[in-house]
């Protein structure tokens, strides 16, 4: 009997060690390569450096001087580094100003970690999609995105750390939007990358959720972006029950609205599936006046002090800014 007990104890210990070892294998892909999840630190999960709204047929890095953008951005990056931010998830999609070399330059200058993306943005009725989108199959799209994951983006060695798509508002997805969601599902299943989708209200999130479930995607790998646009807070409960990440990422535009939603989460649900950020930045190529650029500090200067005054704990804050992003963006081995 003692021998059986000893074997059982050793087996349990072996399993625990293997589990811990597997957990250590999780990585997060930044523009500088793989990092361990615990190196992520305080993370802003939805920000922009440069966004070019001219359209997919005209945009390109010929429209901006990288060094000028770096010089402009550095003070804003330094400001939030002083507040403890270690990582920015840069959500600018392809054909909207995504520039991994620019991010590398900013990172080298400041030490800020950046995570960039693969995928296409279908919102605004396809203005930011390549002209051949209608001729591309789901497999074609996924093939492009998987190639970026394996080989790097646009001839660089920068690999994406998540999939960024965007869809148009509505209860039923358009044919193009459905194609994007399906391609994201396929890419996720081949790479493990998190699916981050510009969405808006629950009706559009639900349409994507049903499609992803049909494709066998675990919804813990899906982020409902711009969920702050949902007026019925009870729909947050439905999303959390599905396992979805709920991203309240427009703080710079509406501090009060984010406070009310976070209060609802803390009192009525929990904060385990909540991500928060600004949706700030937006250096605009071709414009001499960059006064519309918004920094990344409203969270720290306005929202967090109020949350702490209203009963939120530092553990609550750390969960939303450190531990939830770490869990969401981690890639696990097969």
Automatic annotation (TrEMBL):
Its cofactor is a divalent metal cation. The keyword Ribosomal protein does not apply. The modification N6-carboxylysine is found at residue 164. Keywords: Hydrolase, Metal-binding. It comes from the Bacteria. One of its GO terms (molecular function) is hydrolase activity, acting on ester bonds. Zn(2+) 2 binds at residues 164, 198, 226. Zn(2+) 1 binds at residues 46, 48, 164, 279. The keyword GTP-binding does not apply. PROSITE patterns: PHOSPHOTRIESTERASE_1, PHOSPHOTRIESTERASE_2, PROKAR_LIPOPROTEIN. Belongs to the metallo-dependent hydrolases superfamily. Phosphotriesterase family. This is Phosphotriesterase. PANTHER family: PHOSPHOTRIESTERASE-RELATED (PTHR10819), PHOSPHOTRIESTERASE-RELATED PROTEIN (PTHR10819:SF3). InterPro entries: AryldialkylPase_Zn-BS, Metal_Hydrolase, Phosphotriesterase. Coiled coil: none annotated. Pfam families: PTE (PF02126). Binds 2 divalent metal cations per subunit.
